[in-house]
Amino acid sequence: MSTASTPLDSALLRLLRGHHDDPFAVLGPHEQDGARYVTTYDPGADRMWAVVRGVRHPLEPTNVPGFFRGPVPGDMAYTLFGEDHGEDGEPHVFEREDPYRFGTVLGEIDEYLLGEGSHQRLWEVLGAHVMTHEGVPGTHFAVWAPNAKRVSVVGDFNWWDGLRNPMRRRGATGVWEIFLPHVGDGAFYRYEIVGPDGTVQPRKADPIGFGSEHPPANASIVRDISGYGWTDDDWFETRAEAQSRSAPISIYEVHLPSWRRKDWGRPISYIEAAEELVDYVAEMGFTHIELLPICEYPFDGSWGYQPIGMFAPTIRHGLPHEFRDLVNAAHRAGIGVILDWVPGHFPTDAHGLGRFDGTALYEHADPKEGFHHDWNTLIYNYGRAEVANYLTSNALYWLEEYHADGLRVDAVASMLYRDYSRPEGEWVPNKDGGRENYEAISMLRRMNTECYGQHPGIMNVAEESTSYPGVSSPVDQGGLGFGFKWNMGWMNDTLEYIRKDPIYRSYHHHQMTFGLVYAFSENFILPISHDEVVHGKGSMLGKMPGNQWEKFANLRAYYGFMWGHPGKKLLFMGQEFAQAHEWNHDAEIDWACLDDPQHAGIQRLIRDLNDLYCETPALHAKDCEEEGFAWIAGGDTGNSVFSWIRRGRSDEPEVAVICNFTPAEQPRYRIGLPDTGVWREALNTDAGIYGGGNRGNFGRVIADDEPSHGYPASAELFLPPLSAIFLVREDS
């Protein structure tokens, strides 16, 4: 082999060392002295040649090991052939297409939008896409890594060798791309990246990959997500109405891996859930399923709240089309699907987004801005246009490609405030010296604006634990643009109250009433979520005081209070039948509880509460409006009784809700009512069918014209101990 150094030798050596950022300038076909020369790299080959129309054209070894080069006449497509020796020592001939003979895939408009960070459909141009390009089937790979010296696709198809398929840099966009012929659906791959200092980074999963290996393995997998046959048109015709402020919305929150287990402990599949979960939710009268994050995540114990594959439904339950089967089945049953979404942080796993191209690319470089000590995770740099675009496009992706009906955004407070969970001196103020994170606020507003603008009728929900103003107000009115907000204050106050022995409740009466001071300042959802039944907090049943009967009665009364209170409803799985033990993400919820009539009674109560809530406009139509609520008696501290009126439109019957939170019955308890006549006892949590003592008002009460509590009429009730009663005004 000649040792003479030429410009070509220098370029090939740079490729061999992984320092050449323009491999297409060297590899593939190039004109020289009026002829076409082809250069290729294959370190395992003994001989190489190109074939055009059946004619062989030898490619000779160059001065740099592994590279072959030679003239290939004409301008027609060629195919590469090579010969190597296998383990048996015999020569083997192989055939492959040359990826460096193919032109670019990304167009000028894509390049422009990528460059300015405004490509709303990022998933259509980045990631791995199965396609036919210039007449040849294969996969196009594209990834954003602006500070890299070299980016390569590695996988089974090239022996995970980063020198074989270095990618083409697309100008100032920071995007690298390559089309790999005959690589198709199911191929395993990662990106091998050489950072700006020449260091080869840990191999990275695709930030916009549509599939992943089953954890703890973490390679990305090429998935063709095109061509699904949706059959949910009827749902979309009514979705906007079903998700409005005036609609009954009762959400069943689900951690799919622990809802049901199959075959000695495996999680339920998407296909199985499309039947079993959807049927159960429909039977229970919930209007929506909310899934804890289904974006691919490496650690089971994070429950999905530390995602890495933001564009990949987790493989734990099946393939992308099978997840679509679940959503499609829910829609055909008239049930909406909300996905938990995590734009607030991401894990530090080496194959993830952290220092993706050898620099702090997706995250802040300064840990005072870019690291969450609470969760040991990294924080997105929301002020970087490409990062904000990545997150906004990801939100749109789930609404568009998987027909999600909304996103519940996790940990919004951690995004809004730069000093979130940080001691003095450990955070960076904004440009005005304050604590608000202007960049995160801007990203959330942009995300909501684009989501609602492109997909009318969705419902995005904020888990926001502070009093930040206007979370569920429109962006053009200065709000964040969410449709709804979790009412964390209501949840904390009422759970504190219900934990107390009834003898002390009169001193904490305000914890049940204070929520009405601000109940209509946002569009609220009342959440009893997974966070309330983990980390030593016990189950909902376990929070209740008293003996076993009192625990169940307390919980029944509390659920009655919740369903009668203004605000949409959310209940985490297992709490609908009063699971006795704290939630364990490694096992299914305790379905065996239902063999006990007390647990089965709670389940029936939740079903009946949902039915009453959905069928009675007064209980939902003005959930978010002050006109829909009026106290009867909010101050009966001595008896720990709360009573109020719920109203819908003027032509709809009103509902009176009365809750007794002491173990003492009140046999002649008088309440004021708006009208005389018959009030039907529509639901009584002490009914025998729910496990109660079957005490009540024989199905109805008669209101006379004796004024009380500021109302022109009143009625005497029998209030069972630890109970909630719903009275519906019957037509005269």
CATH superfamily name of the largest domain? Glycosidases
Instruction: Give the strand content.
Output: 25-35%
What is the count of DSSP helices, taking H or I runs of 4+ residues? Answer: 16
Tell me, rounded to a whole number, the average pLDDT: 95
Biggest sheet features: 8 strands, parallel, barrel
- Cα(first) to Cα(last) distance is 105 Å
Cross-sheet strand order for the largest sheet: 15-18-21-25-26-27-28-29
- The percent range for helix content is 10-25%
The shape is elongated
If you compute it from the alpha carbons, what radius of gyration comes out, rounded to the nearest whole angstrom?
Answer: 31 Å
EC number: 2.4.1.18
Function: Catalyzes the formation of the alpha-1,6-glucosidic linkages in glycogen by scission of a 1,4-alpha-linked oligosaccharide from growing alpha-1,4-glucan chains and the subsequent attachment of the oligosaccharide to the alpha-1,6 position.
Organism: Alloyangia mangrovi
Pathway: Glycan biosynthesis; glycogen biosynthesis
Write a structural description.
The active site is at residues 410, 463. One of its GO terms (biological process) is glycogen biosynthetic process. It catalyses: Transfers a segment of a (1->4)-alpha-D-glucan chain to a primary hydroxy group in a similar glucan chain. GO terms for molecular function: 1,4-alpha-glucan branching enzyme activity; cation binding; hydrolase activity, hydrolyzing O-glycosyl compounds. The chain is of the alpha+beta class and 732 residues long. It folds into 4 domains: 7-97, Immunoglobulins (Immunoglobulin-like, Sandwich); 108-222, Immunoglobulin-like, CATH 2.60.40.10; 247-485, TIM Barrel (Alpha-Beta Barrel), CATH 3.20.20; 626-729, Immunoglobulin-like (Sandwich). It contains 16 helices and 37 strands. The strands form 9 sheets. An 8-stranded parallel beta barrel has the order 15-18-21-25-26-27-28-29. Helix 15 packs parallel to helix 16 (597-615). The protein is elongated. The N and C termini lie far apart (105 Å).
